[in-house]
Automatic annotation (TrEMBL):
Residue ranges of the region described as Disordered: 1-26, 66-100, 290-332
UniProt name for this protein: Intradiol ring-cleavage dioxygenase
Keyword Oxidoreductase attached: yes
Record-linked Gene3D superfamilies: Aromatic compound dioxygenase (2.60.130.10)
Biased segments, Gly residues type: 300-311
Keywords: Dioxygenase, Oxidoreductase
A GO molecular-function annotation: dioxygenase activity
Lineage: Bacteria, Bacillati, Actinomycetota, Actinomycetes, Kitasatosporales
Amino acid sequence: MRKPKPQQTPDGPAYQGRLLPNPGEEVVDQGLGFDLGTLSRRRALSFLGGVGGMAALAACGSGSGGATAGEGTASASSSSGLTEIPDETNGPYPADGTNGVNVLDKDGIVRQDIRSSFGDSTTTAPGIPLTFEFTVLDIVNDGKPLAGAAVYAWQCDRDGNYSLYSSDIENENYLRGVQVADSDGRVKFASVFPACYPGRWPHVHFEVYPGLDSITDYDKRLSTSQMALPKDVCDTVFATDGYESSVENLSKLTLKTDNVFGDDGGVHQLATTTGSAKTGYTAKLTVPIDTTTEPTAGNAPGGAPGGGGQTPSGAPADGPPPGSGPTGSPDS
């Protein structure tokens, strides 16, 4: 996680428009009162804990735009009334340059249909068709669409494995792609419905960057998050051929027990989904972003960075894969 940097003003160093009470110290060493005014509600609640944290935030006047208790796990903008989508881990299989592999500097990564590999392979990932759409909004700018933003999305396949990392598909790059938001802030991807592997609710990862020219620089990302898929749709899809292992895995989970969505039950990350197993599904998610805050890379419930969970190969879902080789491929 990047350290927050103060800005120099005529009155002295400041962060997010607030003068530092201890100018000689780093932003993170300014004291509890300053921290509470700086942390998002999600991070502050994790820091303070439970109902006591809610009371402390209310007493400190956090300026969260009147978020209710159910909205207390993400920050809100008083000007737009939108709640910022929670920042989450990018997991061990991002291929964004942070874990051994970088697919974002390859020709062909900018594409809408991510079902097949590009480059030296044309292998297509099997599965029920899933089209997913993100609408990216700038909550600092009255919730206006963040036109021109670049969104990188990636997910596991029908077997719960990730291209470029999992055994036997290290040379594939399917189910990964980048799209640029249109004037309405929308991006759309054609994909397949992901599996439910042990420890993780069915999900799609994504990162938002200011523009296409910044996708190869992870430090320039505006947000890293995940989209959750509704249980009723998952149940229907997993009853079809090819998804058999997902049935048992999903039966052991809820959105509340998932190690990423569990802190608020995925309330701000649960997609609105329509369609059928026969024709395919369309999932839509609104992605409000506070472009003035530093991305945190997310925490699992309980404050542990990264989280747990297992892929079918035994690699943790949101931590460094064990036995990683030069490209980060987990052992079989």
